[in-house]
Amino acid sequence: MRITNTGADPIETSNKAANAAANKPRAVTSEDAGAVSRLLARAFEDDPMMCWFFPEAATRPAALGGYFTTLFTRQYLPYGLCERTEHAAAFWVAPEAQEKAVPDEGTIRELAELLGDRAHWFRQCVEAAAANAPQEAHWYLAVLGADPVAQRRGQGAALLRSGLARADAAGLPVHLESSKAENLAVYRHFGFEVLEEVPLPGDGPTLWTMRRAPRG
Length: 216
Description:
Blueprint: H1 10-23, E1 26-27, H2 33-43, H3 48-53, H4 60-79, E2 81-84, E3 88-93, H5 105-115, H6 119-131, E4 139-146, H7 155-170, E5 174-178, H8 182-189, E6 192-199, E7 206-212
Parallel strand pairs: 4-5
Antiparallel strand pairs: 1-2, 2-3, 3-4, 5-7, 6-7
């Protein structure tokens, strides 16, 4: 007797459902702090700015974990909009929260302990970013990263689309900074344009400021 399967392969269907769940953005809570910080540490381990802040490769993963934990718990969880997928995370800041979401003195002190002799460069970078901050009302993409084990699976793109949809619904542009040249093409694909190249102090890497106009 011949048996013909006219329905979907149950394994394939299960895999698609699992992938869809992994790629679906959800709000980040304080309980996610450890997992999110670890995946962002892996995502940014080869980022030029992070390599400049934390030049010792052996200690960089742990230092980055502490760095992102501090930013998340003190800055972006209280004042931003934080989302994650299974292996990626994004921190956004709405226009009305941007004055509060800048690093305060307590945040800078915590980060200075992690940065050691690089702390003064971090302070100068914060000042340089503030000096180049756009004056128009906008959404700000502060952090977007995907664990290398899941890159090119669409999880970072899902988070990017989620935030862009909010900005478009409000009729507002989006701004970001990137210190990784390879990422510029990715952001251009989503409608961003480079506004300026900002050389960071102390022979630091280049920071590209980018803007995406709102879409109706």
